[in-house]
């Protein structure tokens, strides 16, 4: 029993220290804990709820890239919020009151009015974040941990970092990475001119297809998953439809979905000889267990 307890404690410590808030003397803290409250809630589609948060400390938040993430500490089912001030304190919480921690993309940050949006993928009461988002009300509180302006300018908490000479961009995402994907599309649409971009997004239903920016060099394909489809299978099949073996363009890939789908898509492109393996950015947003 003691061995199991030590393993669990080690896993929790790893999760926190992977993006450590510790700093050497004189160095700024990269991430900070603070409390925000719900000020708006919008149903976007059957699978998505957008919640707007507000708080004085939002003025100190920073977004390094469109897929910037933060940590949410989900309130208890009675709505009470356990105040988190550091990773050691979090690890010492008794299991029955330790708030579940989840990672989410900042859909949009409006620091000038102290607000930011998060788009939640909802799937009934299967998970604490989905349960909370469905029942969330105006003025509900939430503890978060976000990247701070006071830290150094080195990008962190993001994976979308294409090189400046990338000529052809590819995105493969499922619904969990759709908020980040749409934020990326919107950011690229502001460039003059916008780049060549090919995007595949797999979603649960046709009603989850949301509107976004458009331009001539953007090819956006929505893949609606059928009840018999494996998660990410349509994404993987789409990756095999792209012919790059004779391409001389500098390419960049951003793959974000279920772990097994990400692995298969990454392996597919890694086997193409003229593709620079360092140009394949991949991240498992979740694991289908």
Notes on the structure:
- It is a single chain.
- By secondary structure, the protein is α/β, with parallel strands linked by helices.
- It has two domains: 30-146, Elongation Factor Tu (Ef-tu), domain 3, CATH 2.40.30.10; 168-286, Nucleotide-binding domain of ferredoxin-NADP reductase (FNR) module (Rossmann fold).
- Helices cover 21% and strands 30% of the residues.
- The protein is built from six helices and twelve strands.
- It has helices spanning 2-17, 87-91, 128-135, 178-189, 233-240, 259-270, and strands spanning 31-45, 48-54, 69-73, 101-105, 108-110, 115-121, 141-147, 168-174, 196-203, 218-224, 251-258, 280-286.
- The strands form two sheets. Strands 4-3-7-1-2-6-5 form a seven-stranded antiparallel β-sheet. The protein has a five-stranded parallel β-sheet with strand order 10-9-8-11-12, covered by helices on one side.
- A hairpin with a 4-residue loop joins β5 and β6.
- The radius of gyration is 20 Å and the shape is globular.
Give the SSE layout.
Elements: H1 2-17, E1 31-45, E2 48-54, E3 69-73, H2 87-91, E4 101-105, E5 108-110, E6 115-121, H3 128-135, E7 141-147, E8 168-174, H4 178-189, E9 196-203, E10 218-224, H5 233-240, E11 251-258, H6 259-270, E12 280-286
Parallel strand pairs: 8-9, 8-11, 9-10, 11-12
Antiparallel strand pairs: 1-2, 1-7, 2-6, 3-4, 3-7, 5-6
Helix pairs in contact: 5-6
